[in-house]
Amino acid sequence: WISFMLDSDKEVSMKNEQTFSLKREVFEWLETIAFSLVAVVLIFTFVFRIVGVDGDSMMNTLQDKDRLIITHLFYQPKQGDIVIITQPNSVNKPLVKRIVALGGQTVDIDTDRGLVYVDGEVIDEPYILEPTTYMPASAVEFPYTVPEGKVFVMGDNRNNSLDSRSTGVGPIDERYILGKAIFRIFPFDSIGGLYGNTD
């Protein structure tokens, strides 16, 4: 009888240990999941964001409804970067454009030949949809020197783009650059880096 009691006590003790071990394992899993969720939220709040492309002004590099990951962490604007702009404009929505020139640089456009010059040099733009032959009602006179602290942007679909040439946009204050597009995550058959974006 005493032996049976001891065996019974051992079984209860083992069951209690197993239950405690299972509870501890579940708690550790929940803790890990909660920590991961918080980390993801913090990363996508302060380091990365997901934005959508609205319109065709960046064809063929980007298409309408593409989804992009952008970052602003330690970002300094560079010529050739694709950026998201929140500066107020005539269409009242953020714009996705490519930086053509930085503050202090001079932009000129030859619509007869479809060429864009920065500081007197033709810039190499293999990513544009077609040569720049169209000039909208312009916010600036060319050649145009970009003020310090601003950037001059254009869409890759140069002949169908509301950008720094346009009266509704003009040069962009760097403080209104939400971030640089670094990766396309949708559509799934186009996932990857963005052609022409600088490192």
Q: What would the keywords be for this entry?
A:
about 200 residues; alpha+beta; 7-stranded antiparallel β-sheet; 1 helix; 11 strands; about 25% helix
Can you walk through the features of this model?
With 199 residues, the protein is an alpha+beta fold. It has 1 helix and 11 strands, in the order H-E-E-E-E-E-E-E-E-E-E-E. The protein has one helix at 2-46, and strands spanning 48-52, 67-71, 82-85, 95-102, 106-110, 115-118, 121-122, 144-145, 150-154, 172-173, 177-186. It has a 7-stranded antiparallel sheet. Strands 7-6-5-8 form a 4-stranded antiparallel sheet, with no helix packed on it. The longest helix has 45 residues, at 2-46. It is elongated and about 90 Å long. The protein starts with a helix and ends in a 13-residue tail after the last strand. The model has no long low-confidence stretch (mean pLDDT 86).
Low-confidence stretches: none
Strand content: 25-35%
State the end-to-end CA separation: 79 Å
Specify the number of helices: 1
Strand order of the largest sheet: 1-2-11-3-4-9-10
Overall pLDDT:
86
Biggest sheet, in brief?
A: 7 strands, antiparallel
Specify Rg, calculated over alpha carbons.
Answer: 27 Å
Helix share, percent: 10-25%
Q: Which descriptor suits the 3D outline?
A: elongated
Got a strand count? 11
What is the N-to-C succession of helices and strands?
HEEEEEEEEEEE
In terms of topology, how is this protein built?
Elements (H helix, E strand, L loop, with lengths): L1 H45 L1 E5 L14 E5 L10 E4 L9 E8 L3 E5 L4 E4 L2 E2 L21 E2 L4 E5 L17 E2 L3 E10 L13
Antiparallel strand pairs: 1-2, 2-11, 3-4, 3-11, 4-9, 5-6, 5-8, 6-7, 9-10
